[in-house]
Amino acid sequence: MIFLLFSCNIIGQNWIDDTSFETAITNSSGFDDDREVVVIEFYANFNKDNAFKDWDKLKGVKYYRVDIAKAPAAKKKYRIRMAPTLIIFDKEGYKFKVFKAGLDLLCPVQLPALQAAVEQSKKESQF
Questions:
Q1: Chunked in runs of 10, what are the mean pLDDT values of the chain (127 residues)?
Q2: What single string gives the DSSP state of each residue in 21-62?
């Protein structure tokens, strides 16, 4: 358990569940300029080998991982059927883009495409 927490802190990966999900995506600090784009990965322990692995290279975003077994409400709300599924939330906390695993359960996106989608979300939420 200690190793898991330590490894998450090294790459800046934080775990959330149903109790912290809404707070994570809304970035509620009270100041619009402080809000960031958020990427959340819905994760399943049985498929950990196919989880997104480049969190430490993803720039300009907050990112979290959600164990689908510990977040049934979020899983239901966002209609998560496969893991991993990654969702980008814009600065206002609205769902911007979804990357869903297919029947092969492979990670549905690689770093360049995810970074490009994050940048697109930032660009579109400027106005």
A1: 40 83 79 79 95 94 94 96 96 94 96 96 83
A2: HHHHHHT-SS-GGG---EEEEEE-GGGGGGS---GGG--SSE
> How far apart are the C-alpha atoms of 102 and 106, rounded to whole Å?
7
Inter-residue contact 42 to 66 (CB < 8 Å): yes
Q: Residue 82 is encoded by which pair of tokens?
A: 């496969």
| Structure token digits, residue 21 | 């999900």
The span from the CA of 56 to the CA of 64, in Å, is 12
**CA–CA separation, 106 vs 111, rounded Å?**
14
Alpha-carbon distances of 28 from 15, 25, 49, 90, 123, rounded to whole Å: 18, 8, 33, 13, 20
User: Could you give the domains of the chain?
Assistant: 2-124 (3.40.30.10)
**Model confidence, pTM:** 0.85
Per-residue pLDDT at 11: 47
Distance CA 10, CA 63 (A): 13
